[in-house]
């Protein structure tokens, strides 16, 4: 069974985007960017919701060709282009860059993908990750919490029907003040 990881940059008050889908507060340091690039390298398949897909696909296909691209950005862009991706959307009809489009039941497809062979998968996008979270499909949460409050926007976590118990597996502080925390989902005791 494959592992499913949900990780993103978020504000201290728990938002992945401020009102108006503003992510201008989230400017990662070189060290944090390298962490996310290393995460991408260790990922076998990325799962995207439509909005995050549109954000990523508007820049990373040519991110390595930008005149001021850093070596880390060049490496990330090449990894991103080459890796397998799945986009879940009922409103777009075409995807590129080693990507497959799924227009049907996202939870059923994620469940099928998790049951298959292969390395870790990551999931991004609040709506898609929220559906996977409610279905109990997330195995690990990676939070890169920035020292900023935005007061509203798109939350990292969704409303849940049941409590999810977690085990802390890593904490790290980056020079930019971002605190990284990784949690694994704790299996529910039977009985």
UniProtKB/TrEMBL annotation:
Which Gene3D superfamilies does the record cross-reference, listed alphabetically? Dihydrofolate Reductase, subunit A (3.40.430.10)
Family matches, as Pfam families: RibD_C
Q: Which InterPro entries match?
A: DHFR-like_dom_sf (IPR024072), RibDG_C (IPR002734), Riboflavin_Biosynth_HTPR (IPR050765)
Q: Could you tell me which residue ranges the Bacterial bifunctional deaminase-reductase C-terminal domain spans?
A: 2-180
Full protein name: Dihydrofolate reductase family protein
